[in-house]
Design goal:
The chain is 0% helix and 38% strand. The chain is an all-beta fold and 126 residues long.
């Protein structure tokens, strides 16, 4: 069971190691944005879908974040590279700019959940 405040995203089985991630709508500073979760080295991680170099979405096709070797998350626009486990910038034009903004995720009872915070909020239904 997951405590209150956690929002269900998808079945655990929808995330296969090194494959397509799951995108979901979020709100950042009142504007529509997306977050994503994916599985890397057996662990589920979540990030705001926004490059640290230029505030653009990373995926080169919907839900495609990994490079060919499944070693890095790569920004399709400018080639910035990020460590999948931490979101830390590993090279390219994001050098010296930190990394991806993490989103807190948990995997429980066959599902993946995320928890909104003061910066990345749930998108109001409507």
């Amino acid at each position: 069971m997951v405590d209150a405040g956690w929002l269900r995203l998808c079945e655990s089985g929808a995330l296969r190691d090194g494959e397509t991630g799951f995108r979901f709508p979020v709100t950042v500073a009142g504007a529509a944005a997306t977050g994503f979760v994916l599985r890397h080295a057996g662990q589920v991680v979540g990030y705001l879908n926004r490059c640290a170099h230029v505030a653009m979405e990373l995926d080169w096709q919907t839900g495609r974040f990994f490079d060919r070797d499944v070693q890095w998350l790569v920004c399709a626009t400018h080639g910035a590279l990020y460590e999948p486990a931490t979101g830390r910038c590993a090279g390219g034009p994001c050098a010296g700019r930190g990394g991806l903004r993490p989103i807190v995720v948990v995997e429980r009872d066959g599902s993946v959940y995320w928890q909104p915070d003061d910066y990345v909020r749930a998108t109001p239904e409507g």
